[in-house]
Amino acid sequence: MRVLLDGETDLFGLAQLVAQNAGGMVSIEDPQSHVLAYSASGEAADPLRIRSILGREGPHEYLRVLREWGVFDRLHRTDEVIDVPAHPELDIKRRLAISIRQPSVDAAVAPRLLGTIWLQQGDRAFEPGAPEVLRGAAAIAARIISRILDAPSTEALMVQRLFGVRGEGVDIPSVAGALNIPAQGPVAVLGFASTAGADAAGLIRLHASAFRRDAVTMAHDARIYVLLPGFRSEGSVTAWVRQLVERFEGEQSIPLRAAIAIPVGELAAVAGARREVDRVLDSTAQTYPKGRVTTLAESRTAVLLGEILGLLRAEPDLRDPRLDALYDYDSAHSANLGASVEVYLRAHGDVRAAAQTLRVHPNTLRYRIRRAEHVTGMSLADPADRLLLELQLALRKPG
After folding, report:
1. DSSP secondary structure letters along 83-122
2. Do 293 and 357 fall into the same domain?
3. What pLDDT is stored for residue 352 in this prediction?
4. Is residue 267 part of a domain?
5. pLDDT for the residue 2
6. What is the β-pairing status of strands 216-220 and 35-38?
């Protein structure tokens, strides 16, 4: 199958282009010597080329010779063009070969071998610039093969669309049929956050499939998502997630946080539930190990309050300078008005309860409250002032 790369040639077109410019006949193979693409053959094609193309891989006796000559070892070690001499006993002509390798962004990690390009000599000698042509072709082939390998499968694309990470809208009956899951009924959507990357994703996929054979799993960025169709009970799902988190920490030493959206009414709502799960995981990132596992219902208030405070922190104009005046007064007079107001608000205006928490006389607290009102110009008897003051006090806390 020909796969185009953003308007560039495909592997077959690349093979033909190399043959025209380097002289000879070209085959492009994967690391296991399976033929991926080839140029047109002429009468000068040797039996090796014919058998490789017809059988889609090189004959075993010639592959053995190449291993004995150390050709494969050299292809693994170097990006240079290797000259492979003719082998008259096997009726095999001279070839030039070069590895197709994907460089690693980490200098300490060896490049990934994607395949090789082979140029068989025909009736005429190779063109003088053949090695240079092969080096350029190897770089182009690496981009083409990498794109093919990295392209998600049709099923993976369906799962990504179902979870809402690739485009909007999904044909639910088609997805349900392709994934062999019920199109109707409630589902559970789980989100996991871990620093273990692919290791955690693979393990979660295994455990989820053991819990339910029809579980659908997807890894995206630093998150792993699981869809459980037709779950039996909310309690069983939550218990399983808690056990999984404990097992990861105890047996694998992998820290794991989880958020549960349950029940989700239908498959069409999975993408929205995944976004809600992300909000929970974002809001609990700073509280680990507390709250390793939480549900949307349990964390709704914390999530929304955290997002509101995040918006306020991002807008300096929404900071109330009157609160700064309160703490400036405390600093200048060695007073304790800010903390007293905070405890008073937390006690819902119950002076005796707040005074007991602060370990002061109720009259002392009343004096502090009146003084705070005078310094800020706010009335703690006014519900709007109390709400604003609580939000502004929360902004002063870390995180």
Report:
1. EE--BGGGTB--EEEEEEEE--SSTTSPPEEEEEEEEE--
2. no
3. 92
4. yes
5. 36
6. unpaired
